[in-house]
Model the fold of this input.
Amino acid sequence: MSAIKPILSAMLRSRSAPVLLLLQIILSVAIVANAAFIIHQRLGLMERDSGVAEAEVLSFKLYNFGDGVDLKERSRRDLELLRALPGVKTVAPANMLPLGSSGWRSGFVDGPDPDTAKSLPGMAVYMGDENLLETFGLKLIEGRNFIPGRIAEGLNDTEVPREVIVTKAYAKAAFGDESPIGKRVYEGGITAFTIVGVVDKLQSAWVNDDEVENSVLVNVNMNGTGQFNTMVVRAEAVDHARLTDAIKEVLHRDDPRRVLFSFKSIAQYRESAYAQHAMMAFVLGAMIVLLLAITALGLSGMVMFNIERRTKQIGTRRALGATRGNILGWFLTENYLLLGIGALVGSLLAFELSRQLMDFFSLDALAWQYPAVTVVLLFVVTTIAVIIPARRAAAISPSIATRSV
Amino acid sequence: MFSHYLDLAWRSIRKTPMMSLLMVFAISIGIGITIMTLNVHQLMANNPAGDRSDKLYSVNLWSQGPDSWDEFAVNLSFQDVMNLRKSDAAPRKAAMIATGMALTSTNPEVEPKLEHVRATDRDFFAMFSVPFLFGGPWEAGADSEPARVVVIGKTINDALFQGKNSVGEVVYLDNKPFRVVGVIDDWRVLPKFYDLHNGPTNDTEKLFIPFSLVEQEKYDPWGNVSGWKYEDGDLFNTEKVWIQFWAELNTPAELENYRNFLDGYVDSQQQLGRFTDMSRSSWVRLNDVANHLKDNKVVPEDNQILIGLSLLFLLVCLVNILGLMLSKFLKRAPEVGVRRAIGASKRQIFAQHLVEVGLVGMLGGCFGLLWAWGALHYLASRFALDDALTRLDPSIWFIAPGIAIGSAILAGMYPAWVICKTKPSVYLKSQ
Done:
């Protein structure tokens, strides 16, 4: 520790190099801490469970066109043809897909009178039949599933009373801790819906939505009411490729003049839904690695230069009895001094940067662990970056002190 | 003199290959990351309307009731659009929606293909400067009297008609015959400002049909349909908004005139009990292209964060280079001392070293461009980044060397200044 004073005064004598190093460390702490924080947040988003058996759920869309097609009848037949295919576990019609990035959104009100009713939170509206629950692989935790034969054929079918299965998150947001089973909700005060079940989890189509966990299923089969139909097929992931061909074959045999497209599993939808976040995490990760590499290389280069400049000085010290360890320790102490000051100022800058990012973008406040870990990381990196060239300095022979240049 | 300095600089770079490589590497990484993020920004912040930017206006109406949406909706309701289409207050105007249909030809072997279709008015082509290869837009009559006519894109013309002039030929959309009236050349706008909500980086459509067909054929909108209250009935007689509407207004007088017309329109609708949000002083917004792009925030937020961080990153690289440069130049002090002693001026020494720094910067810039290009392609293939974003924006060819050389020189200024101050006497004595 007694070495600190001479080291400090040496540094103060040729200020520019240490100042530059300090600046680099300060900026590195600020950037790496914030980048790591953003990465961690994005990875957290990506880890959320959709509630769906993502790998097993294969979906596709079909587009029927031409006059004189009985769309309802055809949709019914399509379902039968699909169910008969080997390897298919269940099949259901759907109007939208979890993580699919497009779909239906709505909001219920809690009473029949539109003037007094209160709005309930917004939610994604999945419409399908009694098979949708199992086809998605949802976990029913309360109440019951829809009942076969009590599925409305499109929005205009008012004969069948509307039933809803809600997610736990939606139930909590709408009714707090009360059980939602049996409660009635309304759309515009006109149509009544009875809540019959609760599923543990079902995410909506939009992963960047604040209300991504708010979803409901309604007992309405929308397939056959328009030219577009979406089908969901549950099958082992390994069968998907084979099934895609089989589905095209069997449905085209029924009518070749229609378009079948977007054969994708929910796992594939997940990939595109989170592509933006994955890319952000990747780019920031690459930035951190490169930044550390450049800092390390720059530091090594500078130490190397210092050694050449101070060769005679080092030789003299060695001649006066400094051990190799002393010389190594000298360079390391110099580095740790800079790192210490840099870590302190850099952390302050990191929080300031985070505050700026928060003001302009939808980011959270930086947690203190990030600058801390960054400093530890820099400690390791700079130690290596200093030790490797400094070992050369330690190897300088004391005899060098006696030479003239 | 400059070429001599360049020669000296090159020799100096070759004399310390590791150090030079390190410097070029550092600056190229910094430049590469900055260029990559700036490129995405440049592409998305691009105003593709050019000098028509302040002539084209997106028409927005506050038709929603009180306590519903907080902002103007980008789209209009069918009834408003039909009313606005009747007026001559704007020299040109176009309603439009995105939709899609199955495209077939008379050849039964060709599998039907689902294609994006834009249903719009005739003025669309002139307003948005759509280039025609053959034929032109449909007759004005088709805007009021629905007619099955279509303008097709080059790729479809190539596929179905082998690139020949197909005007007068027939294609089938959802099994219905449409007469081709025009073929447009490759046409790309980025961002696709006339309809930002269906993906600002999406390709422009290759099929255009008259908007007048939409009601008759009940085409499904492929874009957002938003409603602020519960309504029965189909899209055509509700307050739901789903149609984009643009007007061309060439002079301030025309703009003023059109605003007055719209104000009058809102008044007339309020007589009918619509536009009920009385907390407002104006129910009309006319956004030119620049404002339209700004309000719809087409530059991704993530990209802006990355630009900020990459600029800081570049700063680190520059500080790094500054240090390395300082070390390298100072090592050369004896040599410079001799040169000073035999008559080189401070200015010459300074200039010589700046040229060397500039050369390092330029090399770094070249590698940086390569990094950026490679990184964009890698990201595109790995993360479903839109291909449109992987091409380098023309402005980058100026920005990249500008940043590279400029920042290198900025970083080199101090070391060059330090070295040119070298006192010849010090080094002459010690030798």
